[in-house]
Amino acid sequence: MEEIGVLKGLVAREVDGLESSIWETSSAIHANPELGMKEYESSKLLCSELEKFGFDVKLGVGGLPTSFMATFDTGVEGPHICYLAEYDALPELGHACGHNIIGSTAVFSGVALSKIGGKLRGRITVLGTPDEEGSGGKIPLIKAGYFRDVDAAIMNHPMNFTAPWMPTVALGELTVKFTGKGAHYSTPHRGTNALDGVLLTLNCLNTLRHGFRNDVIFGYTVDRGGINPSVIPDVATARIAVKSTDVSNLRLVLATVHRCVKGIGSTVRAKVEVTDAPVYEESIPNLTLIEAVSNNFSQLGISFKSPDLMSRSMIYISTDYGNVSHVVPSVSPVVAISSAAVGLHTPEFARAAIDKKNRRTVANITKVMAMTGIDVLMNDRLLENAKKEFNRYAAAGFKDTPLSPVY
User: Is 305 exposed, middle or buried (0-12, 13-18, 19+ CB in 10 A)?
Assistant: First the structure.
């Protein structure tokens, strides 16, 4: 086996040769934005690129119609790395989260490694994970066992800054439905006002805010609240999203919300139904892998923010990548495609995700991911340290991890 530095140079040159394909694939996905679990053309495009380079591709894994798993086996026993691809878009905004870049860079990181596969060992998988913006496609793939034999997971996310890891927070969403009894508003005592239940719930949350830890935030929408002011609403629904920097505290808050809703339903004499969406867990940093990414950034002359500046309290985004980081050692650098003034999920960020001036940036983050893959595949000590670190955090229930805020 060749020296790791030489291998990194080789894979970087392969990415240079693939730069046009990386950008064209990203651009094609951006031009045809598809919502979660409906990313039919995007998933087919990514799979077709992988098939061209000898990957064994399976579409629709884990019972998800637009997921895929593509694996390249070097033929030499060794570690198993997994690149995570996302490719779903946002309603009305299109690729305002840059998932076109995530999908393309994951695929071509794997492709670049496969092109020097004769000098490597182990297996390289690209896992297509749909609907990150909605139901969280990585979660059922975790439950179905697709990470069971993975040694490390790698992805990236476009952002308005560059850093070697992505600090994300835990997110829980629930839908609350109150069912009462309709009546004319002149005789409200003959009915049961379901909307009152929703409004009391939201007011209760605003009151409870003062008893929550200061990292807890929430948002809500009233999705159904009646059809005419002269009619007491018999059905009302609201969606509530709650965030906290760690899933342990989030679950305590969600339990409080459940008790609140149940009590209000009893008070207003309405039937209550609460439906919980899958919880997005916070991302768990792996300092060993973060250091590897940092070194690869430096080797390519890319400046980045220090991990010490990237506590989860600084960024309040959430992603199902966090759930992956709870089951295998994982790393997800972020790469700037816009100025700091441009936020994700905006039309401006959607334009940045297709801006030709970012073509080289997209190629560079593909290099970083491929080079980090070489670190995992070829450096026994690094992988051993990454696993020991992960196992130490897992044994403590992920309650004592580095780069975490203290309350």
Answer: middle
Place of tokens 């935030």: 217
Into how many domains does the chain fold?
A: 2
With residues binned 3-state (H G I as helix, E B as strand, rest as coil), the percentages for the chain, rounded to 5, are 45, 20, 35
Determine how β-strand 123-128 pairs with β-strand 68-73: antiparallel
Model pLDDT, residue 350: 98
Question: What DSSP designation does 148 have?
Answer: T
Average the pLDDT over 361-389 and give the result: 98
Contacts of 380-384 with CB under 8 Å at 24 or more apart are 382/288, 382/292, 383/79, 383/151, 383/152
Cα-Cα end-to-end distance for the chain:
48
Residues 381, 350, single domain; the answer is yes
pLDDT at 39 over 70: yes
Which residues constitute the domain of residue 180?
170-276
Instruction: Tell me: pLDDT of 363 over 90.
Output: yes
Q: For the chain, give me the number of helices (H) and strands (E)?
A: 11, 14
Q: State the CATH number of the domain containing residue 258.
A: 3.30.70.360
pLDDT tens sequence across 260-312: 999 999 999 999 999 999 999 999 999 999 999 999 999 999 999 998 887 66
Contacts of 377 (CB under 8 A, 6+ apart): 78, 79, 81, 113, 120, 121, 122, 124
